[in-house]
Amino acid sequence: MLRQILSSVLLLLIATAVTADADVDPYLWLEEVEGERALNWVERQNERSIKILEQIPEFSEIYENNVKIYTSSNKIPYVSFRGEYVYNFWRDANHSRGLLRRTTLREYRKDNPDWESVLDFDELAAADNENWVYKGLTWLQPECRLAMVALSRGGGDAVVYREFDTGTKKFVEGGFMLPEAKSDVYWKDGDTLYIGTDFGEGSMTNSGYPRSAREWRRGTPLREATLIHEVPVDHVGLSAYTTYTPERTYHLLQTVPEFYRGDYYLITDGDLQRLDLQVDVNLVGFFKKQMLINLRSDWEVGGNTWPSGALLAIDFDDFLKGKRDFEMLFTPSERISFSNLSQTRDQLLVATLDNVCARLWSYRRNWRGKWRRSEVTLPGLGAVSLGSTSMRSDRFFISYKDFLTPTSLYLVEGKGEPEKLKSTPEWFDATGMRVTQEEAVSKDGTRIPYFVVWPKDCVLDGENPTLLSGYGGFENSSLPYYSGTVGTAWLTRGGVYALANIRGGGEFGPRWHQDAVREKQQNSFDDFHAVAEDLIAKGITSSTHLGIEGGSQGGLLVGTAFTQRPELYGAVVCAVPLLDMQRYHLLLAGASWMAEYGDPDKPEDWDFMRHWSPYHLLRKDAKYPEPFLFTSTRDDRVHPAHARKMVAKMIDLGHDVLYWENMEGGHAAAANLNQKAYQWALAYSYLWRQLR
Questions:
Q1: What is d(CA 353, CA 479) in angstroms, rounded to the nearest whole number?
Q2: Which of these is catalytic: 183, 483, 667, 685?
Q3: 212-218 contacts at long range (C-beta below 8 A, 24 or more positions apart)
Q4: ∠ CA 142-145-150, rounded to 5°
């Protein structure tokens, strides 16, 4: 009886709270992801939008081209060195969910390698009667025979982990298996995993990630996994993991109270030793017993002041003994920044950005402990990605791309020159096209670079359909890239493409990012507006012909852009976006991003956030361009309610809006290649409808 009374009281309290919230926000019912009323609303919006967008003259051809591009067997089969093989995950028209396969490096050099199938995810999905989407492998180094395979139902971030033996090509009977959750998994050794997962009520943080890191021994129940460490519920999370090098395997734990801050610990026989590092340091790896760290702010230590953005190295054992004689391997400057690193057996590879163009450096450490640096020659001034490296040798892969040059994969052996092995097809004729790097001046006087890709015979008459893309958050850089879709759906049809390097990204190091977080977030929107205005001032386009595009954080960017400056833009593609910044921290992983945006429950934070919360900027008397928003029901990172509620509110305010929600696909909004082809056919058809 008491339990029934308490239950009734609880239900009454919940109902009262929901009713009170509904008085403020009448669209809360759209936050119920799979609620009947919400899904009926989604179905009606999908039917309406598809009926309009599929009838646009460009749609059929763009969709057919997209399918051809995405399902082509002529794509680069990117590989990873694993033991004696190179492994590749492959998707094409016959393998929409993908195929894990392998071959030898000797065979891979050939134009048509002989591949050995290891795990067919289409066959697995059919056998299990599950909508499996492959989410990656966690390998047991250095043998790389055993791996934990991550499988998502429908493409969400929550996955099932299952132990797989690449020798037998079978899942291990009675092996490790984790049920569906946002789990964290690393191998400690062949019989032990470091794990973080959902153990039930109270075991996850407010951000939806595990609160505890544990050791799980083979053959024991998951519930008996040994606790290593636990963090408070208001932390983002934590992770216990291993970093393998030929000299040593490092066992580490990182706690993350908020993005960009945390502590590192060395795990020794179950004990934790905190590493005496500044709380915003990024421990990026180990090389030849040297610990490598990248600084996000200036650090005074050991009698020196090391600058933000620097890459530092120190003997790890000496560091543990209290020495602080760091060496600075990379020195940042105003327009030159550290990007990322990797390593082979004998060389450390460091990628940097020089005014948003890539450079690559090889560092070697001789027997006397002296560093020697040399530059690796790149094909041009584009973007480079460090591919897989071999810990058994000095081999490594790099891929190079720019807006008009198909992506190419190169193999570098030792000190040799890059050898081109593979390339994507030329999906469009770039003859007569060109790329320039322009510069706009933001509201506060900051110079903002951006790239412009000019179609053939483009003239400065202000009438060119122009698509401006951006991101501007989480220290992620927007770099040149080759896209068959942009080329065939946009450039060859006469469209101009622009990519903005606004603050909030990492193009110029940590400070470029830090100048657009929390109360400074408006800087990124001002930067984006400035680029748009510069495109118009130069006669490249006009507001009538200017469209903008962004996804996730980029969705917040373009959502804010068109609600702050509706007169400046003629079209908006807003994908898997954040839009309701008053409730974002209550939805899925949103609480983990408060270091980036702020805490709307604090009046002092909401006071600046409300100026760039698109959902709250909507006005009945404004004249907005008709936007196109799309998301996924299965997105368990950015809640689909952001887009749903924005659309519902616009409709009720009397504004035209198009909306499409894929029922699967996770944060990518597409679970397979055909879905990806379709969603971007909708988007580019919409752009031509708005901007031609």
A1: 10
A2: 667
A3: 212/238, 213/184, 213/238, 213/239, 213/240, 213/253, 214/240, 215/188, 215/240, 215/270, 216/176, 216/192, 217/191, 217/192, 218/175, 218/176, 218/191, 218/192
A4: 100
Q: CA of 251: how far to CAs of 55, 140, 247, 688, in Å?
A: 57, 14, 13, 53
Name the catalytic one among 552, 592, 613, 685: 552
Q: Residue 85 to residues 101, 305, 398, 647: CA-CA distances in angstroms?
A: 10, 45, 18, 49
Phi-psi region of 542 (alpha: psi -120 to 50; beta: other; left: phi over 0): beta
Which stretch of DSSP H or E encloses residue 606? helix 603-609
pLDDT band at 664 (very low <50, low <70, confident <90, very high): confident
Residue 655 bears catalytic tag: no
Dig out the tokens for 406 from the structure: 């198909």
For residue 299, what pLDDT is reported?
A: 97
Cα–Cα distance for residue pair 52/331, rounded to 1 Å: 53
Backbone angles phi, psi at 464, to 5 degrees: -80, 125
**If phi over 0 gives left and psi between -120 and 50 gives alpha, with beta otherwise, what is residue 74?**
alpha
Phi first, then psi, for residue 562 (nearest 5°) are -80, -20
Q: Are 503 and 527 in contact (CB under 8 A)?
A: yes
Q: What is the pLDDT of residue 7?
A: 36
**pTM for this model (two decimals):** 0.90
667 is catalytic: yes
Provide the pairing of β-strand 658-662 with 628-632: parallel
Distance CA(362)–CA(383), nearest Å, equals: 17
- Quick: pLDDT tens for 184-221: 999 999 999 999 999 999 999 999 999 999 999 999 99
| Residue 249 CA: distances (Å) to CA of 37, 175, 187, 348, 686 | 53, 23, 11, 17, 52
Q: Is the Cβ–Cβ distance between 171 and 126 less than 8 Å?
A: no
- Of 69-73, 258-262, 372-376, the range with the highest mean pLDDT is 372-376
